[in-house]
Amino acid sequence: LHFRRLRLKRELDGPDAAAALYRPPPPGVDEFRGGVLASLAMLGEDDLQQRRSVLTFAVEREPDSPYWRIALAEVHLAAHEVVVERAGNERELGRIQGSEALYAEALELLDRARAEARVAADLDGEFAEAALMLGYIETCYADLEPRMEERDARREEAERHYTRALELDAESLPALLNLAENLLYFDRYGEAARTLERAVAIAPAEPLVWNNLGYAYYSAGRLQEARACYAEALRVGGGDPRIRAALGDVLQQLGDLDRALEEFEGARAGTGGDAALHAQITFKIAAIHEHEERYPEAIAEYRRYIDLGGRDTAKAESRIRRIYSGAYE
């Protein structure tokens, strides 16, 4: 209701009159900025259209504020992610034309986000959030690029921005995590691990940091260190099924199949409504049973995977046929 009153007042009497309708600002914040913050606080994170309207109004009123520019860029990025998900759903349903139209919309939203972030960086060359935002936008562009050369070029540009963000704020956890993800993309596992070791020192109670470091160690073949990281991620963050499944992968590589199976079964029990993850873990469980020559259990799990609509049902059916043709009596 407050937002509607604000919009109506703006349309009737202009932005200055609308600003007067804002809630009282917190101490130490001027009236206009406090009003914008109060209006944003009243909106849900999913109210993207209204958040965009409020922040567009703020940019119009204070065009030289890098903070409003970055906040508006974040809204464009959030809208981009929604559209990309819709485009992916359309593609999976075979509606290619609708999917392509949505991807075009997603690119337009990225263009808008980048334009705002570039203005923010120009307004304040020491603004770490602007460099971070530009890096993340380049990563999003890379994810939409069909050609590897273009993806790699986008990723290289993203790395330059993440590095700049860390030059401005050496303890920026988002910059460290995004830089590490970029390094992992290029298979630079040692550099990624060192970057994530810095992140762990900054946020030792954050399970995502331990999880990502575990993945970097795992990719580099440092299995014992990966195992310790995943265990720590579970200790500080609870029994996240994806982390438990990752720990199961490490244990399987180390040859501790009983413990791996225990982790996989615990992970599967915690998947909730995530059918894709449930199916993925079920295949891992089936493979362990097959390796250990527990063929009835393996067949049951492969069939369960097929019933769940796993992405590689042909492989599961092939495994069942192989068991029946020779190994299983």
Q: How would you characterize the largest beta sheet?
A: none
Give helix % range. over 70%
Looking at the structure, what is the overall shape? globular
Structural class assignment: mainly alpha
Sheet-strand content, in percent, reads under 5%
Helices, by number, come to 17
Oligomerization state: single chain
Low-confidence stretches: none
Q: Termini distance?
A: 71 Å
Task: Indicate the radius of gyration in whole angstroms.
Answer: 25 Å
Order of helices and strands: HHHHHHHHHHHHHHHHH
Number of strands: 0
Notable characteristics:
single chain, mainly alpha, about 80% helix, globular
List the helices and strands and how they pair.
Layout: H1 2-13, H2 15-19, H3 31-42, H4 48-61, H5 66-92, H6 96-123, H7 128-144, H8 148-168, H9 173-185, H10 189-202, H11 207-219, H12 223-237, H13 241-253, H14 257-269, H15 275-291, H16 295-307, H17 313-327
Description:
By secondary structure, this protein is mainly α. Helix 6 runs antiparallel to helix 7, helix 7 packs antiparallel against helix 8 and helix 15 packs antiparallel against helix 16. It is built from 17 helices and no strands. Helices cover 80% and strands 0% of the residues.
Give a short synopsis of this structure.
The protein is built from 17 helices and no strands.
